[in-house]
Amino acid sequence: MDHFKTILRHHYDIDAVDVTPQQGGWSALAYKVISDQQSYFLKVYEKSRASTPKWTALIDKYVPISQWLSRQTRLQGKIPVPLLTRTAAYKHEDDMGIYQLFAYIEGKTIGNQALNSLQVRQLAEIIAELHLYGEEIPVSTAAIKEDFRIPFAKQFREMLNEDIHLLPDDVDEIVKPFTNILATNMNDLEMIAEELRGSEVKMKLCHTDIHNWNLMHSGQQLILIDWEGLKLAPVEADLMFLVDQPFFEELWLPIERHIHIM
Length: 262
Hints:
Oligomer: single chain
CATH superfamily of the domain at 2-105: Phosphorylase Kinase, domain 1
Distance between the termini: 47 Å
Shape: globular
Structural class: alpha+beta
Mean pLDDT: 92
Number of strands: 10
Largest sheet: 5 strands, antiparallel
């Protein structure tokens, strides 16, 4: 933990009394930082993880947008925003990792619990507010705009056509009977992507990873965390996570009402 304390002191002007591990997510490790003044949440993306470039490549692009949302919309107090380093950077980086620091949220992750009616209503308000904004906001959204690319398509085809023998035997046994179906589905997916690229589908800001492990309750307020996937995309990029939830109808009515009021 001494390494983290050094980072906090040199790059955030924080003298940490204690740094303790917290339950992290798929993308990063998490630590609670205690200083004499207050508590913080340190997010650590390890460079040894293959997924780290995916989650961190657009930090400098999406954080200014989340800052604007937090300051200029009704999402204030409902989304976390990283604290700046002493050089006004959105992150610190060294050979071991990429670091983001937040004010600590006193609360609990929803996780395996079911959302209650108040939380469903608050989630609807968060989503509806977010979906009010698109590329017209005074912060560039070009880097996070959905382009409907399928980056794994070429590799997927090669796996089906040429490299299937490289799969582990148990996987090969499962996949082989369905190679034609998988190839057809990939063709269909690419056709849909091509159509969408040529369309004028309406784009709005979307979180793109809404689930109970990215929801916290602090007091009586629901908070939507982990904004690495922030995109300018069709609103379905968020709704697809919710349409099969038992509370979807209860959720959808407040979203419609909020949008019509605004």
